[in-house]
Amino acid sequence: MHEYQDALYRMRLGHTDRAISRDRVLGRRKLGELRAVAVDRGWLDPQSALPTPAQIAAVLAGRDGDTDAVAPLAKRSSVEPFAERIRQWFEQGVQGAAIHAALVRDHGFVGHYSSVRRYLNKLKESQPPSATMILDFAPGEAAQVDFGAGPVVFDPETGTEVRTWFFVMTLCFSRHQYVEFVLDQSAETWQRCHHHALRHFGGVPAKVIIDNPKCAITRAVIDDPEVQRAYAECAQGYGFVISPCPPADAAKKGIVESGVKYVKRNFLPLRTFRDLQDLNRQALDWVMSVAGQRTHGTTRQQPLALFELERSSLRPLPARTPEVCSWARLKVHRDTHVQFDYCLYSVPYKLIGTYTTLRATSHQVAIFNAAHEMVAVHPRGRRRGARSTNDDHLPPAALAWKMQSSVYCLEQAEQIGPACLALVYRMFGDRVLDRLRGVQALLRLVDRFGKERLELACARMGEVDRVSTRTVRVMLEKGLERPPESAPPPSPVYQGQARYYRGKSSASGPTLH
Fold first, then answer.
1. Buried (b) or exposed (e) across 399-409, using 16+ Cβ within 10 A?
2. How far apart are CA 323 and CA 315, in angstroms?
3. d(Cα 467, Cα 335) in Å, to the nearest integer?
């Protein structure tokens, strides 16, 4: 309103609308409308007092009680017919662009998006201001932790560029911080960064204030959050309390939020990094030589100087560093394995279809059943797709199949006899068909018929030059593994002489001598 008041003052001095507009006070159209209102109200009389901004605003808005004299400047907004609907959407948190699109699409609104934006700004201004308070912390009372997006660096192992994130832990009293760049935001990386940060500080704060990342909080609610089991073990091992912020309320950890912005704006710009190792080396040097030596904008002191006062208030590090671990609830597949981090680990076959609990450290994987009993231990897989199988976990049939390899079968055949060994060699020598199952079935016939009979059957197979497990089995079932007894020799009386013999009682035909 002060611009309108200035325009009225210059009108009293006799300045034209063109001259006032040339000085960019108001546009000529608005000046013309204002002059008409001023003449009607007597505001241009030099003997009267210049109206105050509040009086001008009341007249232009029609709030002075004279509805007939409402100034033409009080334009009716194009969104007023939809005011209540827009207010409801605003309270629901719908964005202005979506509101404008819905009005155009469903309600025939022809106004510009700026009309909707101006009305939403009025609604925001009408809301009562939200008050905040400064959070003060005693030395050693708390630290705040957060992740931020880092630069892309070269990975010498893969020969490609990889994305990074950076972990920041800031002590709330001194503002001294620890910064580490990592390649992921997993639960194990989260814990490992805590270990490095606490060793960097040389002590443990009483409380760690965090946001609600999935690597730390499994259920983010304001009244009853659930902490990752592995992170809870880390907190118990070091003796600090986990304090999650309410969801979507970053102001509760504004100290570390400012620290993240400080890293992005002061450390990352105008620097080059060879790889992740070089990135972390430069970050640590920057923390000690730049960030720690600056005069902090809130405390007005150097973080490292305040840290010297805070150091003695930190709790001592534990004698035994807690293990970096992960917990997972996994279902046992039909192949007697569970899958964790793209690796497979076997469990006893009787647990197929049930859920187990897995605890993984950097070197070992332990699996527990529903009764919290350890049922399997494996070395941690180092590459994706790795599989660790304990033969004792396999079902009997699968174990028997796995144990009966070609070498094992040859050893068993040799114990039966040379004929059996020769037949097995011939079966393994088939260049078209894999006969391992046939050999295993052949050797299992020992359980039914014994070594001696099986050896005889294999010998007969060698005589007839045949390779068939089924033929051997049928032969043994019918008792044909032995050769038939030889026929008795002919009578010496008839040797060399061809005769027919017929008894004396025969009455048919003469006897041939």
1. eeeeebeeeeb
2. 19
3. 34
> Are 331 and 358 in contact, with CB atoms under 8 Å apart?
no
Q: Give the 3-state secondary structure of residue 146.
A: strand
CB atoms within 10 A of CB 205: 27
Q: Residue 159's pLDDT is what?
A: 86
What is the chain's alpha carbon radius of gyration, rounded to the nearest angstrom?
Answer: 47
Total number of domains constituting the chain: 5
DSSP state of 485: P
**DSSP character at residue 510:** P
End position of a domain, from candidates 365, 394, 423: 394
Token reading at 420: 């059996």
What tokens does 193 get?
A: 């960064």
Same domain membership, residue 358 and residue 233: no
Domain edge (last residue) among 352, 371, 394:
394
- pLDDT, residue 75, reads 57
38 and 183 co-located in one domain: no
Q: Which residues contact 134 (CB under 8 A, 6 or more apart)?
A: none
Has residue 376 been placed in a domain?
A: yes
Looking at the structure, do residues 425 and 376 belong to the same domain, yes or no?
no
What's the Cα-to-Cα distance from 78 to each of 70, 108, 118, 231, 388, rounded to whole Å? 18, 12, 11, 55, 70
Torsion of CA 296, 301, 306, 307, to 10 degrees: 30
Residue 367 lies in domain: 325-394
Whole-structure pTM value: 0.63
| 233 & 350 share domain | no
* 3-state DSSP assignment of residue 300: coil
Digit-coded pLDDT (tens) for 216-250: 888 766 667 788 899 999 999 999 999 988 776 66
SS (H, E, C) 251-286: HHHHHHHHHHHHHHHHHCCCCCCCCHHHHHHHHHHH
At residue 181, φ and ψ (nearest 5 deg) are -95, 135
